[in-house]
Design a protein that fits this description.
339 residues; alpha/beta; TIM Barrel; 13 helices; 35% helix; globular; binds calcium ion
Length: 339
């Protein structure tokens, strides 16, 4: 009997060792922001496949709807900064001079050529050292095409890289007669992304919508409340400054599993961290700041890795959105080997 107990005890201890939380740098999530967008046009399937090969923990999707209600992966609900929509459909411009995804059917959007993000005023690339304009061929993917790509690569490569979709502009979509959250949640469920154990974080800036996703639509997976600056007009009915206070955070904690602030919300212009991470952790939530760009570093950072060290280890954030997932994965591997 004693032998049985001690053997079982040994077996349990072995299992516990195997399943023990990994070293701290293993727990930091690398989230490929719009794919490997530092290297290929954002949100194209090519950028997502390249990101997958870099072994991040999650790959991000921004989601908007087409006129026929199909979720597509696109950062703005405009098409003009990343495609040739203005030359293909010149008469579909709205009064504000912009081309909206919701005004085109999926079949029409599929005829567009996607490219690196441009500044509409200059027509030049926002990030001049990235992939050249008008080279090769890229399309705007549907959310389902992207999910199939990531799940397929997970199977082919023996990985479990997660998805990190963002519901964009839900109030805008509702005004256009579309319930984007319901459509996205149903698609996620169809593909097995519906519980907190599944490799998915669903994110949204609109605090009213985040609450609706949990309470009315009954979504049970991990949820992240994104935090903007009020003057970005990201979600005009939300006071983001209030959401960042301890009181605001505790109301988020009743609904969501984490927050997604931008880096300056936790690191000052001189590179000092504040109490935001501590306050978020005290409520049992995670914090995944955005966005690290090797070609557009914060002024306080002398080099790329200093941002990772400051955000993930000095400030203690749980993960980071980056346009350069390979650099973050490499940094965390070195950090682990140093332990
Ligand atoms: Ca996003």
């Amino acid at each position: 009997m004693m032998k049985f107990i001690s053997l079982s005890f040994f077996a349990i201890m072995t299992l516990m060792t195997l399943q023990a939380p990994a070293l701290s740098s293993d727990e930091k999530l690398v989230i490929a922001h719009r794919g490997a967008s530092g290297y290929l046009p954002e949100h194209t399937l090519a950028a997502k496949a390249l990101a997958h090969g870099m072994n991040p923990d999650y790959i991000e999707q921004d989601v908007v709807l087409t006129k026929d209600g199909v979720p597509i992966v696109l950062h703005d609900h405009h098409l003009d900064t990343i495609s040739d929509v203005a030359s293909k459909f010149p008469n579909r411009k709205r009064e504000d001079g912009r081309y909206y995804a919701i005004d085109l059917s999926l079949a029409e959007i599929k005829t567009l050529k996607a490219h690196e993000r441009i500044d509409l005023k200059t027509g030049k690339r926002v990030f001049p050292s990235r992939f050249p304009l008008h080279q090769s061929h890229f399309e705007i993917p549907t959310l389902e095409e992207e999910i199939e790509l990531i799940k397929g690569l997970n199977q082919a490569r023996g990985k479990n890289i997660g998805i990190y979709p963002e519901i964009k502009a839900p109030a805008f979509h509702r005004a256009e007669g579309q319930d984007i959250s319901k459509i996205v949640i149903d698609l996620l469920a169809k593909h097995g992304y519906s519980t907190k154990e599944d490799a998915v974080y669903l994110q949204c800036f609109d605090w009213n919508e985040t609450q609706r996703i949990r309470n009315e639509l009954g979504y049970k997976g991990k949820l992240v409340q994104l935090i903007a600056e009020n003057d970005w007009n990201e979600s005009p009915n939300v006071n983001f400054d209030a959401l960042r206070t301890k009181e605001g955070l505790s109301s988020i904690a009743k609904i969501a599993d984490g927050i997604g602030p931008w880096i300056p919300h936790l690191i000052s212009p001189t590179g000092q961290s504040n109490d935001l991470v501590k306050n978020v952790h005290a409520l049992g939530m995670k914090i995944h700041p955005y966005t690290l760009r090797a070609d557009a570093l914060p002024e306080w950072a002398k080099e790329h890795d200093a941002v990772l060290e400051t955000v993930l280890f000095k400030a203690g954030a749980d993960g980071i959105f980056t346009d350069f997932p390979d650099l973050a994965v490499k940094y965390l591997q070195h950090k682990n080997q140093a332990h």
